[in-house]
Amino acid sequence: MVKIHAPGIIRSMLAASCLAASVCHASCIPADDENFEPEMCDVMLPPMAHIDITDHHGDRVEREPDCNSFRPSIPEIYRFFSRAKSVSQQAWSHELTWVSCYVSGTVVFKDGRKGSWHVRASAIGTIDIEGPAPVTFHLYCPDCRFHPFWLGE
User: Fold this and answer.
1) 57: closest CA among 103, 116, 99?
2) Which residue has the higher pLDDT, 28 or 47?
3) Quick one: DSSP state of residue 46?
4) Counts for the chain of helices (H) and strands (E), in that order
């Protein structure tokens, strides 16, 4: 039996995705309006066997720092996924900082499933897990205050 402790708007989404994709959320942190943080839930993605970076995206130079400075390595992408929290699509789309600079790629999980992902320089991203019940997770990593992310070190 899977226990989910997730108050608020994303509880039913978490239960459905946990059962359908063998991906579970352990607990959630309520929204922190004072610090402009959305509700965030721990996510336990299936163990990853392999990650590839397939492309870098974004304007070369724009109002934000130069996108050429966002070139994460494979270990930094693994680190992002190990620290990221799940957020609602609404929070991901409307409450978190977006920048045009991002990398994208593919992932193979140890159970044989495949997926695709993208991670932005502002430490947000998504991971799509294929399967009979495909699922997309919207992710935010407030603990990714390390190079190459732009949250500050």
Assistant:
1) 103
2) 47
3) P
4) 3, 8
Which token pair is 93?
A: 């789309």
Hunting for tokens 């978190």 — which residue is that? 96
Burial, 61: exposed, middle or buried (Cβ in 10 Å; 0-12, 13-18, 19+)?
A: exposed
| pLDDT value at 2 more than 70 | no
SS3 87: strand
DSSP class of 35: G
Q: In 3D, which of 141, 125, 126, 37 has the Cα closest to residue 85?
A: 141
Global confidence as pTM = 0.74
Q: Where are the beta strands (DSSP E) in 1-101?
A: 28-29, 40-42, 48-57, 85-87
Classify the phi-psi angles of 123: left when phi > 0, otherwise alpha if psi is within -120 to 50, otherwise beta: left
Amino acid identity for residue 110 in this structure = K
Q: Of 122, 149, 152, 140, nearest to 42 (Cα)?
A: 140
